[in-house]
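Quick illustration, no need to memorize.
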Amino acid sequence: MMHPRQRIQQFLPLLTPELQRAAGFTLTHSHDVMTLSMRAYAQNAGVKPATLHRLAQRLGYEGWSALKNDFIASMTVSAESPTSRASRLVELNDTARLYDDMFAAHTRNMARCHDENRAAMGETIALMDNAEHVYICGFRASFPIAWSVYYVYRLFYKHVSLIDGFASNDEMFTRDIGPGDVLVIIGFAPYSRESLLVLEAARSVQATIIALTDSATSPLAVGATKSLWFPTDGPSFFPSVVAGMGVAESLLQRWLTATERRP
C-alpha cells in the first residue's frame, strides 16, 4: 500500500497552486496532520479547511479525515506481540537473512525519521533553549536514549536533570517541575506507568512537553507542545531503538550548531 506521503508526492505536479501549497506544507508537517484538528492545521498551513478537504479528495480519499487516518495507520507500531515475534524468528532459523533484515529495517526507520522530523527539529531546539530548566525522562528500554541526550546536554548546560527512576526518584523531580520548564519525555509502546505519571505531573503545572516517541497516537505525544517521531519496526522480537538514538543525536547536533555552544 502506498504511503500517504508518496501519494502526495506523486500527485503534487498535477495540483492547483493552492492545493500545492497545502500539499507542500503537509509533506513537511505530516506529524501535525495526525495531532491537530483540520481547522487548526489549516490555520497553520495558511489555507482554508475546505482546501484541505479538496486536497484529500484530489489524492483519492473521501475527505480530510480519511487522509488523516491513513497517516496514523502508516505510522502505527505493529501489534505483533514479542512472543509471536520470537516464535516466528525461531521458525525462520536463518541467521544470515535476519542479519540483512535487521540492517534493512534500521535503514528504513532512519529514512522515515529524516522525512518526518525535519521541520519539528528546529522548533524543538527553540523550546529547550527558552526553558528555565530541562528535565529529560526515559524509562526501561527508552533509558539509553534519555541518557544520551542528558549526557551531551549536561556538558554544555547545567540547568538539566535526568529523571531515571532509580530508587523511585521520579517523584522527587516532579515536585520541582514548573511552568517555565521543559520536559523531554522519551518512550514507545508499551508505555511505562512511570513515564505516564511524570507526564501527568508536567501537564498539571503547564510545563512545556517535548515527546520523542513512536507514534502520533502515543499518549506521550497527545498534548505535547512538540513531538519528534521514531519508528521501532524491525524483524527482532524486541522493538528497535536505533532510530530513536538517531533522532536524539540529530537533535543534539542541531542544538550545538544552532546555538554555537563549545566545550
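The first helix runs from residue 4 to 11.
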